[in-house]
């Protein structure tokens, strides 16, 4: 076990004890994406959110100036099914148990995936209509590994269409579904950018290994509208890299 991963695992438990739940977002304190409870105020809403204002490795980023590096390939082995929750901030899918993502010698377990509109990460200043975040926990340390994939309008995507048809309409509503394979939300190539960052929602804990797929997937524009009808804007603005290296797999 690498010492850095161990320390980040301890930080996860200390700074984000509720991350063992599937929301990976602060509970108990109202926050939003606009107004007095919007991103620029998250750090002052609760002392638990101090990293949102004072952190030096915050996410998301505008990905630019990436450095080509020999970083490990990604391999997913996810399971079909789960439950879909409208948690008041996004549509979130609690993943079926046993799904994994491997990055070299590291193995992460898929816990949940959720959606943002527009995309939280930018590429050379460009945003995308949506972004899905696949949230994983490192098997040994409990630190997080999050894979982001951009969604753009185009050909229908069977997986996203199935999810969109089942989106719970009210906050707190949850439905169970079977047979939907999250692998269908991945591009054919898993070339990616990597950097060390944070949760993009309160408490903004800096315990995330970020992996952002270079290639977007196409989904039906009508299915994007089904999400934006519920959440027209649930993206934290891109933040400064603060001299962090962003690595490119190709």
What does this structure look like?
It is a single chain. This protein has about 250 residues and is of the alpha+beta class. The chain starts with a helix and ends with a strand. The protein has helices at about 5-15, 40-45, 50-55, 160-165, 220-230; strands at about 60-65, 65-70, 75, 80-85, 90-95, 100-105, 105-115, 120-125, 130-140, 145-155, 175, 190-195, 210-215, 215-220, 245-250. The protein is globular and about 40 Å long. It has one domain: Alpha carbonic anhydrase (Carbonic Anhydrase II, Roll), CATH 3.10.200.10. Helices cover about 15% and strands about 30% of the residues. Mean pLDDT is about 90; it is low at about 1-5 and about 10-25. Strands 2, 3, 4, 5, 6, 7, 9, 10, 11, 12, 13, 14 and 15 form a 13-stranded mixed sheet that branches. The chain has a two-stranded parallel ribbon with strand order 1-8. The chain contains five helices and 15 strands.
Map the helices and strands.
Blueprint: H1 3-15, H2 42-45, H3 50-54, E1 62-63, E2 67-68, E3 74-77, E4 82-86, E5 91-95, E6 100-103, E7 106-116, E8 122-123, E9 130-138, E10 144-153, H4 158-166, E11 174-177, E12 192-197, E13 208-213, E14 217-219, H5 221-228, E15 247-248
Parallel strand pairs: 1-8, 2-15, 10-13, 10-14
Antiparallel strand pairs: 3-6, 4-5, 4-11, 5-7, 6-7, 7-9, 9-10, 12-13, 12-15
